[in-house]
Design goal:
Layout lengths: L7 H7 L15 E5 L4 E7 L4 E7 L2 E7 L8 E8 L2 E10 L5 E3 L3 H8 L3 E7 L9 E7 L4 H9 L20 E3 L9 H6 L2 E9 L5 E10 L5 H9 L3 E2 L12 E8 L6
Antiparallel strand pairs: 1-2, 2-3, 3-4, 4-7, 5-6, 5-8, 6-7, 8-9, 10-13, 11-12, 11-14
Length: 260
């Protein structure tokens, strides 16, 4: 099945299939653009799974379909791709959909520019679940990946991709508490989610924070998350591990004051 509709942003979330251990290599990325929807989308069809790199209105995500529907908003995964080797990550689940989104989509996309295997292992989600593994062979073709990254103003090379990620559980001495934006778009959306990456400073604060994902985009959720991170502080891990200088990847959820 080749995905060629300009409505691929919706189609990707609707696709689903049974999990498979490994898939044959796709021939090449299919690239779709739609100026009216501010959409640039590159997809690889593996039959049971589809890999999609999507820039929509300035917001970038990397989606994998054909994943068991999750019962929570996130899923623990172990990822290998390029210079990323068996790294523990937390990916974003799509409610009610067999889809997972990468925590750092631009970083993962850059690792796939030269092709190779994307290996994803999902931890069991409950006592009756089992682990799942997906090994998707990506062709060595950077043009479509570069087009999507460029559409979202993401660099094609980034030195911080190679920084060690914090793998220890963290606790906060001063938790970031973002304010719900007053923008009309935020008020209409009612809730939001922002994925951040920050370097842990020598004083256990957060520095060089960047927005990795923002849903919905252009509603000031990312800006609010960045402001709240300025005064955040971490407690040193109780096991003595020094995570200063490492990159902390985490998410902030936004709910309107008083709820809805």
């Amino acid at each position: 099945m080749r995905l060629t509709s300009p409505l691929l942003a919706a189609a990707v979330c609707a696709l689903g299939a049974s999990p498979a251990l490994a898939q044959q290599a796709a021939e090449d990325w299919d690239l779709t653009t739609n100026a009216e929807q501010q959409l640039t989308l590159a997809t690889l069809d593996f039959g049971a799974n589809v890999l999609a790199l999507r820039c929509r209105a300035g917001d970038l995500d990397m989606l994998v379909t054909g994943i068991p529907v999750s019962t929570s908003a996130t899923r623990k995964v172990q990822v290998s791709a390029g210079a990323i080797a068996a790294e523990d990550q937390v990916w974003i689940a799509q409610p009610g959909q067999p889809v997972l989104g990468a925590a750092e989509p631009a970083r993962l996309a850059r690792q796939l520019r030269a092709g190779g295997d994307l290996d994803i292992r999902l931890d069991p989600e409950g006592p009756t679940d089992r682990s799942h593994r997906y090994r998707l062979t990506v062709p060595a073709s950077a043009a479509a990946v570069d087009a999507v990254l460029t559409a979202c103003a993401k660099p094609l090379d980034e030195a911080r991709d190679l920084l060690v990620r914090v793998s220890e559980p963290v606790t906060w001495s001063a938790m970031p508490i973002p304010a719900f934006p007053r923008s009309p778009a935020a008020q209409t959306a009612g809730r939001g989610r922002v994925g951040l990456s920050c370097i842990v400073s020598p004083e256990w604060g957060l520095t060089d924070c960047r927005v990795e994902s923002e849903t919905p985009p252009d509603a000031d959720f990312g800006a609010s998350a960045l402001r709240s991170a300025r005064d955040a502080r971490l407690n040193p891990p109780t096991n003595g591990t020094d995570i200063r200088g490492q990159l902390l990847v985490f998410a902030m959820q936004f709910e309107p004051p008083g709820g809805r």
